[in-house]
Amino acid sequence: MKPKVTMIAWNQNDNYVVTAVNNHLLKVWNSCTGQLLHDLVGHADEVFVLETHPFDSRIMLSAGHDGNIFIWDITKGTKTKHYFNMIEGQGHGAVFDCKFSPDGQHFACTDSHGHLLIFGFGCSRPYEKIPDQMFFHTDYRPLIRDSNNYVLDEQTQQAPHLMPPPFLVDVDGNPHPTKYQRLVPGRENCADEHLIPQLGYVATSDGEVVEQVIGQQTVDQDEQGLEPSILDGMIRQLQLQQDQRTGADQESASSGLQNGEGTPRRG
Which of 23, 120, 186, 251 qualifies as a FRET site for 243, CA 20 to 30 Å off? Predict the structure, then answer.
């Protein structure tokens, strides 16, 4: 097999270059002379993650499709720490990306099963308030394009960036309690009644009908038959004004061209 380089990274002070090769070896080179200094052995599959420590020039992190995460001392060519990403009942999870924190005390990884792995020093208590499964209810929603070729959410017919903050749900689309909903930017100071999502039934691609979050609605509003949300009404009004402005601009542009004025300029 002809060796191929899959990833390359300089260390923190640029004295060394580390290359990942598709024969599962990591090679440490002197960046000035090009001399091969060390072969780092440990991975059993291709490596596509090489991350240098933010301030310690000796430290390099590697991770690959074999589920292994290594911390290396590249000056000595030795293994400092090792973690194998074994998932119970599913085998190992390939590691797709890793990043160090700015202070160098933590690093986070994502794997092929959708997990976020956080490593570091100290207590893990700050992370215990986070649910095991976190998705926005708008994740994987289909998008469409309108007559102006703008992207819209298919269900609400609104531009995604103008929609209200999404709800946090688990992998099955079930909403999390209100204390977790306040973790979403834009919902920090909402009253409890505004953190109760409206549930509906949605057909999946397999034809199965499942209950999912489809919007925001309070009990009082539901009984009174009012708008599902004041914010939704404001968003619709803004969208309507934007569409009217866009139509006016297009009319003025076309009339300008018909009168021989050339390309119209926009303020």
Answer: 186
Class of domain 5-127: mainly beta
Instruction: For residue 90, give the 3-state DSSP assignment.
Output: coil
Q: 64 has which bridge partners?
A: 47
pTM exceeds 0.90, yes or no: no
Could you tell me the residue ranges of all domains in the chain?
5-127, 135-213
